[in-house]
Amino acid sequence: MATRNTGHVNGLDADAQIAIVIAVLGVFWTQASSYEIYSLPGNNNDYVQQTVTINSEHNIVDIHVHAGMCSSDTIFDYNRGYIATRLFSRRACFVLKMEKGYIPEIEELGRLAYEKQMMKKIFSERNLWVQYEPSDSIIAEFKEWLLFGKPIEKLCRDVPIYRVHRVEGALRAGGCAKAGILGILGISVCGNISI
After folding, report:
1. Reported pTM
2. From CA 13, how far away is CA 127, in angstroms rounded?
3. What pLDDT, on a 0 to 100 scale, did the predictor assign at position 123?
């Protein structure tokens, strides 16, 4: 009696098998290289180009999202513990203190970027909602740059800076801007609007 090959091995379908192989290769690749660049497609076949550069030696992740008026640059500085996003349409920078459990480790970001680049989809997308007070911008001076570090200073110099804080769940306020690594760790930046 002949058996038919259904593409399942140990109960896993072909997509799951490919995802496991790519994840394992991504882990080895991340450990072998200290400087990686990923070119990621946007979600839903939109015209967004994302570039993720991971510098494991300096613990910095640099993200460029090219999306016309919605373009942004984001830096994850794991040594300093801050994330800064410059939204070009708003001509401002938004700085968030990293919290364990909400921000993936640098190795995980590398694995997820590799997975998204290779498979064009992601199995573990996360979203982070942050809020700022529109009236509380600062122009950073020496003490803030010491706290935030050189990479964030280069990104945010000469524009107003807003400290943001994480909020639970999606905000219902309009006018939120999307940044971060779209499709992997989306960061929605929203103003606190009191009526």
Report:
1. 0.72
2. 27
3. 54
Measured distance CA(111)–CA(106) in Å, rounded = 9
Q: Please check whether residue 190 is in contact with residue 87, taking contact to mean a CB–CB distance below 8 angstroms.
A: no
In angstroms, the CA 173 to CA 151 distance is 31
Strands of 46-125, DSSP E:
49-55, 60-66, 72-77, 82-87, 92-97
> What are the DSSP E strand ranges found in the chain?
35-41, 49-55, 60-66, 72-77, 82-87, 92-97, 126-132, 161-163, 165-167, 177-181, 185-191
pLDDT digits 0-9 by tens, 111-123: 777 777 776 665 5
Distance CA 48, CA 118 (A): 17
